[in-house]
Structure formats: C-alpha cells, structure tokens
C-alpha cells in the first residue's frame, strides 16, 4: 500500500460525457502527478500540481483539466469523452524537494468509455 | 531525461536471483536512475533509485557502472510474486518533474 488513494476504482461511461477522478496523496506530500496508461501509448505523464499550483504539463488534452485543493487532494476532470480515452489513470504523490524525489503511485482508476 | 533501453522480456527461476539490465548511455550528471515495477494493471511500485553508488534496500539492489551508462537491478531471491513489468527510468527532477516510462522488461518468474 503506497498511501495514495484513488476513487473510483472503475468507471464506465458513454462518449461525450464528463467524469471526475479523485486522488488523495500520501500524508505530507505536496506534489500530485497524473498519468495515463493506455494499451497503445504506455504510461504517459499528464500534469503535476504542487501545493495547489500547476507545476508541469505533459501530453494532456485540452478536454482534460485538473486541480489541487487546499487539503492537497486532486481531481482530474475528463470531458467530451471519446472511445480513445479508455485507459488506466494513475496519480502519484511526492515531497517535492528538487534534485531527487520519489513518486508513489496510487492503485489507479480504470475508465471505460463506450 | 535520458532514454533508457531494456530487454523486452526475461525469465527467471523461482528462488534464483533476477538480474535486470538497463542501458542509459546518454545519462547526464544530474539524472538519477529509478526502478519501478508494475504487477498486472496495478499502480507502478517504487523499488529503488541511485545516482552513482550501488544501493540496496529490502526489495532489491541497484548496481550502477562507474561510467553510469548502464545499471542492473537485482532481485536476490525471485518469487512468483515478482512477476511484473520492470521500468528503468533516468530522471532529473531539476529539469522536469515527470517520470518518462518506456516499455520496460516483462519478468516472468517460473516455478
């Protein structure tokens, strides 16, 4: 158990819909990362938040957005869903200290878009 | 981040040491070598990381060559539960905070 929690575990929805994935980081971790893992793309970094502020952006679509709240939990919002958005979505947390840090991953949310 | 190269798959007998190689010939001085593994579709699990010196923890040992162009992850006594995809990642958190995952090595531990 990494200490990172994600809800829901599974999500089934239809094309065009909007969903919200939630992540609670480990106690004390200020940084939250979101990754997407699809069959054809592997694990890809989407976005990072540090203490409520966006810190880095990866291959995140404009239809996707995220935020980190004052209690440090984070939400990833996916809208206008397409079949190709079906994937595993992981969040990770770390203590951002520069130089070196270790990201700990949650169990993921499996999204299926029908 | 430097690109890493790993064999696509490896087999190991249960109880034997599993030695997983990784090439990172373009690694920069600021980049650490991280190892993660992913069992089925679970979240990636952190194993170990290092910069120059060899490292050991309760899960594994990491041997980094003196020129830092390659490394080996050693699982000293592999069990069936070690069957997973193992990812070697070179990361410089001063240059960017994301981990770049490649294809990894699929390790199959056999009875």
Strand content of chain A: over 45%
Quote the beta fraction of chain B: over 45%
The largest β sheet of chain A comes out as: 7 strands, mixed
Low confidence ranges of chain A: none
- State the separation between the terminal residues of chain A, measured CA to CA: 31 Å
**Poorly predicted spans of chain B:** none
Backbone CA Rg of chain A: 13 Å
The count of helical stretches of chain B stands at 0
Q: What share of residues of chain A is helical?
A: under 10%
Secondary structure: number of strands of chain B: 9
Task: Itemize the secondary structure elements and their pairings.
The complex is a heterodimer of chains A (114) and B (111).
Chain A: E1 5-7, E2 10-13, E3 19-24, E4 31-38, E5 42-50, E6 53-57, E7 64-68, E8 74-78, E9 87-94, E10 104-105, E11 109-113
Parallel strand pairs in A: 2-11
Antiparallel strand pairs in A: 1-3, 3-8, 4-5, 4-9, 5-6, 7-8, 9-10, 9-11
Chain B: E1 9-13, E2 18-23, E3 32-38, E4 45-50, E5 55-56, E6 61-64, E7 70-75, E8 84-91, E9 105-110
Parallel strand pairs in B: 1-9
Antiparallel strand pairs in B: 2-7, 3-4, 3-8, 5-6, 6-7, 8-9
Describe it for me?
The complex is a heterodimer of chains A (114) and B (111). Chain A is 0% helix and 53% strand. By secondary structure, chain A is mainly β. In chain A, the strands form two sheets. In chain A, strands 2, 4, 5, 6, 9, 10 and 11 form a seven-stranded mixed β-sheet that branches. A four-stranded antiparallel β-sheet of chain A has the order 1-3-8-7, with no helix packed on it. Chain A is globular, with a radius of gyration of 13 Å. The mean pLDDT of chain A is 93. The model of chain B has no long low-confidence stretch (mean pLDDT 93). Chain B has no helices and nine strands. Chain B is mainly beta. Chain B is globular and about 40 Å long. In chain B, the strands form two sheets. A five-stranded mixed β-sheet of chain B has the order 1-9-8-3-4, with no helix packed on it. A four-stranded antiparallel β-sheet of chain B has the order 2-7-6-5, with no helix packed on it. In chain B, 37% of the residues are buried. Chain B has strands spanning 9-13, 18-23, 32-38, 45-50, 55-56, 61-64, 70-75, 84-91, 105-110. The chains are: A mainly beta (114), B mainly beta (111).
């Amino acid at each position: 158990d990494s200490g990172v929690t994600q809800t829901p575990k599974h999500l089934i929805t239809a094309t065009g819909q909007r969903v919200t994935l939630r992540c609670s980081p480990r106690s004390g971790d200020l940084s939250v990362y979101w990754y997407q893992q699809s069959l054809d793309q592997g694990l890809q970094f989407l976005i990072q938040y540090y203490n409520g502020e966006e810190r880095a952006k990866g291959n995140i679509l404009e239809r996707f957005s995220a935020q980190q709240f004052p209690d440090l939990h984070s939400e990833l919002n996916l809208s206008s869903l397409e079949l190709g958005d079906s994937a595993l979505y992981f969040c990770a947390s770390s203590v951002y200290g520069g130089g070196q840090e270790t990201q700990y991953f949650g169990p993921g949310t499996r999204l299926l878009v029908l | 981040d430097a690109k890493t190269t790993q064999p696509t798959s490896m087999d190991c007998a249960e109880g034997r040491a599993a030695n997983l190689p990784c090439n990172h010939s373009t690694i920069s001085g600021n980049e650490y070598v991280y190892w993660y593994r992913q069992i089925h579709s679970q979240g990636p699990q952190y194993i170990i990381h290092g910069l120059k010196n060899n490292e050991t923890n309760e899960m594994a040992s990491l041997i980094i060559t003196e020129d830092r162009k390659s490394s080996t992850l050693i699982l000293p006594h592999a069990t069936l539960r070690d069957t997973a995809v193992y990812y070697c990642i070179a990361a410089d958190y001063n240059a960017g905070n994301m981990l770049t995952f490649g294809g990894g090595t699929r390790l199959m531990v056999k009875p």
